[in-house]
Design brief:
- This protein has 751 residues and is α+β, with helices and mostly antiparallel strands.
- It is built from 29 helices and 14 strands.
């Protein structure tokens, strides 16, 4: 049993990781996350019971606050639970209550899912009979639908019997009696706990079975094609005769009923329902082909009007926004660099950010975000007619699964703003490297706000969000897009390269890019921090702690990324902030390497302070700065290399950070594989400050170019590791416990 302490937003157990431990929540609140659904576990609850029966965790478990304490309890099977109860009888109550509470919630969802699946069969057959009756009136033969004829009712044979549901529902109301009954009997308590966990698993499987039944058969009612019951009834609706008015109304009522039922259920994609609604509306209005085409062209304006309505602009603001939108839409070439196009883009860009801010603050008080607003918030869509049908479908699918773009340290911009609004994150610095509070001080100093106003604004989360939109979103978007002269944040089809799915920067893709760099530069995100535990004779120890960056995904297409801040605040162990487009036209791995190269430079500057370029203070930046400043006089460099360095400085506009970032790309992509791209001096600097992990070092040992570098590094590493082991032995001998930070530090020196 190991006590572990986690900070806010740290992951305790990750979905799909091997299930080998339970965790008792000693202090704090834990988010149990599966897909887009969350459950909160509190002090006294147990992490992992909902994953019973699986070889891996089926949920993510994330700490909600700092100093969250959990007890890690090894678990290798049912016998482990009995062993836990024998060793720690106090855990028996927590495990039993947690299992029953979680089971109660899932049983309620299970019963609803079963009812929905059974109701589906009854509804389909009822509407099918109505269809056959209507065919008699219209004197046509019913179009055969074999899938309906063969449709079997949902039996839920793999679900939970009613007696078991009744048993556990009754048992949930007698938790105290159950705990008292099981007291002192580990085998009995383990059996009750595992029985509840097994029922949780069966309920989950039963819900999945019900959902699979609906999804597998939902197409007989409404599908993307017309070969469904809705399509057959729609054909009858088109058969207008002199005496069919009454039946037309009846058919319309049935069609509306089908769509209403389908929209309230989960088996039919929303975009399919939207298509059917549009189709029905067109038939209801009996519009001609030309009118239908005109209506389609107006769809984009309707989308824009919905956003305007959501933003609740006053009449004058709304009219100005419409004028800017219409002026942009009428451009013959939206990417032209002529004066008319430039002015139109500028006007609409201003409107875009104003709408984003207004709509954001409206959304925080709403229980549900409409589809068109999700498209706007996450992808910058103002007008659907500027996008192809395939792109719209892809975007809507992604919006319904937007959790794929989120993780503990990866945020779509909308969610990042929410984190600031909720007090989970602080605003970023502006382009002048001034934070929110420094900005307020400057406003007060220049007389733009009073001292009282400064105090109010310093606590205003709304003011912080506005600062973030105006100074991060607005300022960084142009650079991330890569379209400096023709930038406009509104998404257009011409910006889609290939497909949306290929361009999408989701959390898994971003995390993979970071992991690929860590495999080569293992120390990249480690920071030196102070650990102290005087109660166990460890007064002060400098340790290495990994701090992964926060990545913010901007709602636009782009070909670049930015390292915006090397730390979030004055604390060294606060995460950096990287900015990426949510739709990337460039390989994400390449963008990440360049971004991390700039981060490497800036974090060293931050740590070194004013002496970042003083070669007397050995550091990555000081040695590299000295190398570039005096390369012409360096006798170790050949004339060819001096010419290469000169050209690199020209390409980087004499910015040493950009030259370093270029060398860092070569270090990660080529030098690590033994392909020489760097000169001896740069190679030695990078090996000292951006060392390769043990596996790569071993591969390079046979290479004469690296032999001395590897030997020197290993000698230094071995000494540090020996010293660390001695300190840890003494610390543990005094009763100290190696927490996650100390274990991370040890792993660092073992790499």
């Amino acid at each position: 049993m190991i006590e572990q302490i986690f900070k806010k937003n740290e992951t305790i157990a990750r979905r799909d990781e091997e299930f080998k431990a339970l965790f008792y929540v000693k202090k704090g609140i834990i988010r149990q996350i599966r897909d887009s659904k969350e459950v909160c576990l509190k002090t006294g609850d147990v992490i992992g019971l909902a994953d019973y029966g699986s070889s891996v965790y089926r949920n993510d478990y994330v700490a909600v606050m700092d100093d969250t304490q959990v007890i890690k309890l090894p678990y290798s099977g049912p016998d482990s639970l009995k062993m836990i109860y024998n060793i720690q009888p106090d855990y028996m109550e927590a495990f039993l209550k947690t299992a029953l509470e979680q089971l109660g919630k899932i049983l309620e969802k299970y019963e609803k899912a079963n009812v929905a699946a059974k109701q589906f069969y009854e509804n389909v057959n009822c509407w099918y009979k109505d269809y056959q009756t209507l065919c008699e009136f219209y004197k046509v033969s019913p179009e055969p639908l074999d899938k309906i004829e063969q449709l079997a009712p949902f039996d839920g044979k793999d679900g939970i019997p009613q007696w078991e549901i009744d048993y556990f529902n009754r048992l949930a109301g007698k938790k105290e009696e159950l705990v008292s009954f099981c007291a002192g009997d580990a085998a009995l308590a383990a059996g009750e706990t595992l029985a509840a966990c097994r029922s949780m698993q069966k309920a989950s499987e039963g819900m999945e079975q019900a959902q699979q039944y609906l999804c597998a058969n939902g197409g007989v009612l409404v599908s993307e094609t017309d070969r469904d019951l809705f399509g057959n009834i729609m054909e009858l609706y088109r058969m207008k005769t002199d005496d069919s008015k009454e039946h037309q109304s009846q058919v319309e009522e049935i069609l509306t009923g089908i769509l209403t039922y389908a929209s309230q259920s989960s088996f039919c994609p929303k975009h399919v329902l939207d298509q059917k609604q549009v189709l029905l509306a067109k038939e209801q209005d009996c519009v001609k082909q030309e009118q239908e085409q005109a209506e389609q062209e107006q769809a984009g304006f309707k989308h824009f009007e919905q956003i305007l309505s959501y933003a609740k602009l006053d009449e004058k603001q709304a009219e100005e926004a419409r004028n800017a939108f219409y002026e942009y839409r009428k451009l013959p070439d939206m990417s032209s660099v002529d004066d008319q196009s430039r002015k139109a883009r500028k006007k609409l860009t201003k409107v875009f950010y104003e709408l984003y801010e207004k709509c954001f603050f409206e959304s925080v008080n709403q229980p549900h975000i409409p589809e068109e607003m999700q498209e706007f918030f996450y992808f910058g869509i103002l007008d659907t007619t500027m996008l192809g049908e395939e792109t719209i479908e892809s975007v809507r699918t992604i919006c319904n699964q937007i959790y794929q773009c989120k993780s503990c340290n990866i945020y779509p911009l909308y969610d990042w703003l929410l984190a600031i609004y909720r007090g989970e994150k602080e605003p970023s610095k502006n382009e002048f490297d001034t934070d929110f509070y420094g900005y307020l001080l400057e406003m007060k100093r220049t007389g733009k706000i009073s001292e009282d106003q400064e105090k109010v604004l310093a606590k205003s989360r709304e003011a912080m969000v506005k600062f973030e939109i105006e100074n991060l979103f607005f300022c960084a978007s142009r650079g991330i897009s890569g379209k400096v002269t023709t930038f406009c944040p509104v998404l257009r089809e011409s910006e889609i390269v290939g497909s949306v799915s290929k361009m999408l920067v989701n959390a898994r893709r971003m995390e993979a890019a970071i992991e690929e760099i860590k495999k080569v530069d293992f120390s990249v995100f480690y920071r030196e921090v102070i650990f102290s535990d005087p109660d166990h004779n460890l007064a002060k120890e400098v340790i290495q702690k990994e701090v992964l960056p926060d990545v913010i995904l901007f709602p636009l297409t782009g070909s670049r990324a930015m390292m915006w801040q090397e730390t979030a605040n004055v604390h060294r162990d606060s995460p950096a902030r990287f900015l990426f487009p949510v739709l990337s036209a460039t390989d994400v791995n390449d963008l990440m390497i360049e971004t991390v190269g700039r981060y490497r430079w800036e974090i060293c500057r931050r740590i070194q302070g004013l002496r970042w370029n003083d070669v007397k203070e050995k550091s990555l930046t000081s040695e590299y700065f000295d190398y570039l400043q005096f390369y012409r006089k360096n006798s170790q460099l050949s004339p060819e290399w001096k010419e290469k360095i000169k050209n690199a400085l020209v390409r980087g506009k004499n910015n040493y950070r950009e030259v370093f970032a270029s060398d860092y790309v070569s270090w990660i992509k080529y030098e690590s594989k033994g392909s020489y791209r760097l000169n001896k001096i740069v190679r030695e600097i990078l090996f000292r400050y951006c060392p390769y992990p043990l596996e790569i070092r071993r591969q390079l040992t046979a290479n004469p170019t690296y032999q001395d570098l590897v030997v020197k590094y290993e000698l230094t590493r071995t000494k540090k590791l020996q010293r660390l082991q001695a300190i840890y032995t003494k610390y543990q001998g005094s009763g100290g416990i190696l927490n996650s930070d100390l274990l991370m530090n040890k792993e660092f020196y073992e790499k």
